[in-house]
Write the structure tokens for this entry.
Amino acid sequence: MANVDTGHLKAIEEKVYAAERLSVQDGLALEDCRDLFFLGEMANHVRERLSGNFAYYNVNTHINPTNVCVYKCDFCAFRADLDDPRGYVMDESQIRDRARQAHEKGATELHIVGGLHHKLPFSYYTDVVRWVTSEAPEIHVKAYTAVEIEFFAKIARKSMKEIIEDLMESGLGSFPGGGAEIFHPEVREKICDAKASTETWLEVHRLAHKLGLKSNCTMLYGHIEKPLHRIDHMIRLRELQDETGGFQTFIPLAFHPDNSRMDEIPKASGFMDLKTMAISRLMLDNIPHIKAYWVMLGMKTAQVALSFGADDIDGTVVHEKIYHEAGSDSPQEMCVADLERLIIEAGRVPVERDTLYHRIERVDGRWSQREKIGSVSLA
Ligand code: SF4
């Protein structure tokens, strides 16, 4: 069955089928296991227990208002210095245009994240939310990572809670999960020492959940981290989720080395991608959804991941810049027909969702929000 301690793996298998929580030691044993089908079968069992045969996607657009960033994370190919000719800041009309295009394309979500500009005031970031909500009031705004929230608090001299409240007042609907990278200090101190600490990242999401916002969470894998760091990362997320219940989706993000300061590291393999997806589903028993983000994984791996623990494939994603700058060779945009075809081919039933996991119904080019998805009983 597997090439490591088969007794331990058998005990893990029994726990999984009994819907019992896995320990750190269990997670490390899964990391040691190279039997991908064994891992996938267990992850698929959990995935089907939580989401049945459904696979979710949404119709969304990305906006990255600026790529100018005060930080210099080693893995980042997106950022630019203040005086870099590549640097840009989108103005009001560009942001409004993007929101209008999203509205015309029937998007239900705008995903907004970007660099931390040296000179822009906090009001720019609240204005971005106001511009898009005034242009397309029906669209849910999922914006700004915990790293951005901490930075806004610094430049605005406000508490992080006040920053979140200001953004909510501007129309923000939820938080994306970026900036988590790897929480363990042995790794975080090496790849992104300057930006928000692990404690701050978790505290921003804790605050957001207490204020009634939902959020996502991520993990950047396939660089200098070791199995222990990945398991530690998942456990920290699982503990916060036990406390708040505010995470909707976990998104394992494969590191893309091109154009970064870590470009000597090879890209994560397909084996690593599927194994990480499966282990995520098995360890994060209290997070309802696991996303195979096709922009990072490529469509082929994302499709297969729907049988390795993932129940969500993200969206149509127009104008994605961050991972394409880092060498992602996936297309800039997928149409709904293509997303659905890939899901159906994988033997799943495609369901369009909105950001907060309501089913979306489209009639004559208009969309409406239907029932809440994922009222599954979590282990
Ligand atoms: S990952 Fe984010 S914070 Fe880090 S350099 Fe890139 S844009 Fe800046």
Residues 6-57+141-315+328-372 form a domain with the TIM Barrel fold (CATH 3.20.20.70).
